[in-house]
């Protein structure tokens, strides 16, 4: 039985399951900190013979049920008690102005190890003047079932034409990967052209997708469509059966993409929030906007490579999905594409029967297992690059390979460096002419797609490029942790090789394995000395080395390696991957949402740039600087760090800052490290209105 109908049905079920399960994400995690203390309102001015009042909310999710609460002025306790409660309570307290001094008074509120303070001026006032803050408002999610159905119908019908008609000669898994990749190409092509004519809408996107797929089918009937699939499938490709390794890989994928989110806020990654908010801007603008209204106080051009935003915005416009439901379907789409693109690439390198095992080796990297599955943008770009490699190696089609490479680069430019590196070391029968042709086409297409941004904003520039951007090196401890399992297997295989050589049973590795080993060493050095982004390359080369090595040895070696790998992956996953790297803590999530409720849309926020994307996405407020460093204002970025480290009040005045959002004990002023503070990050001249033991929010007095 053909696998195509089964795979098509699996795509439908997987996408629908992702959308509906997303409604139950985090049901074991309420996204609240253990403790929090925040002001609801406070009197900032009071006259003689009056009372100055305040209201504070106290959140307790900790194991301690009885916690101290007190109010102080000038070191004297005005009020104190022991509170026994769980959840959220509100405390109101009024201070007789007779106990206060003329002029400025600092009122300090304490709850357990948390503390707030605000400035209260006593003078000749007719009545108290009040600063009103509010409680956090949590946003809900939902979607329109009819629009979702119609949008998915358009997408699936387009995929159906590609999968069953245009690529009908391809085997199930190969055709599935290529069809998903071609669908991404159509998304970007449709959006790019419609955006040029300022005609982006759900209707125009649907019409463009259907028209393009039908046109490609017409070309295929006329014999003009590139031959990226076999014209006559071999018996092995016709059967296209799944083996044990494939099923283990698929089970791991199902758990990661559908169920891990039920426990943790895995989509709330520091940079995912930037990507998702950028998609929101594209959808709201019905096209690529000229500027970002929140980043760098709205002065920053919208100049990030927009390929990913075009794909996700297309899905949003067609289906009406937003928020985590949109992210869920995008994650599943990118995840399926990534898995089957890797399968296709491994098949191209002659490893069809070990493709599932190859996925498990590849997933033994910390980056691949802890980070990559929760970043659909990265998965999308790497997937299209893997397809480009597979098409060139398997079908020798430089034109289509170059087209895919250009699209992959339009999602994430570094793949232009990964592509040649992988091919040089992994392609046994390397063909220079075909490679150069595909590479030139890829670079040319990327340049053409990126040209509108250059014409609008000039050549790319980076704020503090030595710390942020593409050239972030991996520290040695990070590199070793990332490759721990993979390096263990490489070392084990090399020890076995040496043993066999000493026993005079064989020579030390064949030439292709020696070349792969050299590529691994070189890529690891590039990761350590130039950019950690090469981790995807080194991990893939190690996986290829392991598979080829196992292919040269007896089945007993393979069985032992497989059992060891499965044990290592399971232990590794339990140790590290149930808390995916880069997930934003509950403290930060709650604080950012709280900031939204206590501020107005016109308020400017000075945030530690590390948290800038979170404040913009969840808090929906203008931020002085975030870590979107392309075309960024380095003065604003440096100004943020300067204030957090020195308390320079001129920066607040210069940029009309109303709130400061910071971490209690450190400033993230470096890409791979931070500045640890000796004292908590307090600003006595401001009002401290929020504390959850990790995040502080200060308000600049009016």
TrEMBL record:
The chain crosses the membrane at residues 145-167, 174-194, 200-221, 242-264, 325-344, 356-372, 403-427, 439-464, 484-503, 515-530, 536-553, 560-579. It comes from the Archaea. Coiled coil: none annotated. Keywords: Membrane, Transmembrane, Transmembrane helix. The keyword Transmembrane applies. This is Glycosyltransferase RgtA/B/C/D-like domain-containing protein. It comes from Candidatus Iainarchaeum sp.
